[in-house]
Amino acid sequence: MSIIDTSDAGRSGLTGSARDFRVPGGPDLLGRGDGFFAWQQTRRQNGYWPFSRSTETRPGTACRARDDSGNPMEGVNFSSQDYLSLAAHPEIAEVATDAVKRFGVHSAGSAVLVGNTASSVALERRIADFLEMEQAVLYPTGWAAGYGVIRGLVRSADHIVMDALSHTCLQEGASASTQNISLFRHLDLDHCRSKLQAIRAKDARNGVMVITEGLFSMDSDTPDLAALQALCNEYSATLMVDVAHDLGALGTEGRGHIGIQGMLGKVDLVMGSFSKTFASNGGFVATNRRAIKEYLRYYSPSTTFSNALSPVQTAVIGKAFEIVASAEGKMLREKLMRNVVSLRRQFGEQGLDVYGDPSAIVCAKVGAESIARMVSRRLPTLGLLANLVEYPAVAKGAARFRLQVMAGHSEENIRHAVKAIKLAVDEARIMAAVREARSRAMAA
Ligand SMILES: Cc1ncc(COP(=O)(O)O)c(C=O)c1O
């Protein structure tokens, strides 16, 4: 498709993809956003730009927000990632207030200088213990942790073998570290093995990092971690698992798929984010070697040369870990899972397919971006906030609605979400069929 689509659908912003503007050329760097912006404006003016919304209230199970043109919306919120609803927990607010009183609001330095506090040192210990690992290092965000663990350890002669659907922070960390990157088909262990075999047949001297996620954030599925670790041991490779979406929220003890699969303390490197379950920005890397912790601290640029997490953040995350590990945490996970199972079942009953296995990420399949954009325009008018996901977060043509379920959602919230999506999808399909018939008639 040409970038300028003059068809009826193109003029209203239903065609085209962010993919079309990935590689703008020419000498004028400052002109590089123009094509994208024109396309985005077309979508925006027609109500098809559902990104960069801002909340006007706490992002709880109900929320008031505005789109990026300032139009207000209000409704049941399935677009925020606070899986155990801890952001609204009174003990979290209390610990944040206490931290401000004791430490102030700012860490005022990198963790390699004086950015750590008693609270961040205690948090590193707590995370390592929770995962039954020896050590943990904190990062300013989960993204920085994913990027930084790869950039910190992998050098240009080394190799990376990664699941093709790995998160962008892992892909960017890989690209910044080496050109020797092999992607294996999503969750496909045989394909991973064949990549490792090919590398080791030629190169026994350099390192190989195998990268995957505990729970894939758009597909809600999970690799066999024990088998992957065994493969890594066989080929002298190092396994790195991103547990951003499952840690805290899945498993009877909240230790995610590493816990569910009996792999606590046995995975070479574990990296995670606090932004989904632990009520704060921030990320970590856990390892069984003190030397790796020290090395990352000084050679992983996204922590070494970045300001440490603030004392408010580390206090909040520490309290969130305490709740996650408690009987209350277990009860919240059970509530979350009941919500997830109910949402998936109700989607199925309405003939809407969902991806993967039960987790806090429930993605309803749509496919065509044109249909998905019509649905996304309609949802706020039906009192539902739910994220449209399209390229670059997923492949072109695989658009979906990603509902992020919280323990705090009620059965009524779930029924409302399913009803709204079903109605909006049905309407969008009818409108698409009418549009198609009209353009066929005009062409005839
Ligand atoms: C799998 C995965 N890893 C890492 C990140 C980055 O985490 P953060 O939001 O804490 O930067 C995300 C968040 O989108 C994610 O989904």
TrEMBL record:
The keyword Methyltransferase does not apply. Residues 75-421 form the Aminotransferase class I/classII large domain. Its cofactor is pyridoxal 5'-phosphate. Keywords: Transferase. SUPFAM superfamilies: PLP-dependent transferases (SSF53383). Residues 1-26, 49-71 are annotated as: Disordered. It holds the Pfam family Aminotran_1_2. The keyword 4Fe-4S does not apply. One of its GO terms (molecular function) is pyridoxal phosphate binding. This is 8-amino-7-oxononanoate synthase. It comes from Methylobacterium haplocladii.
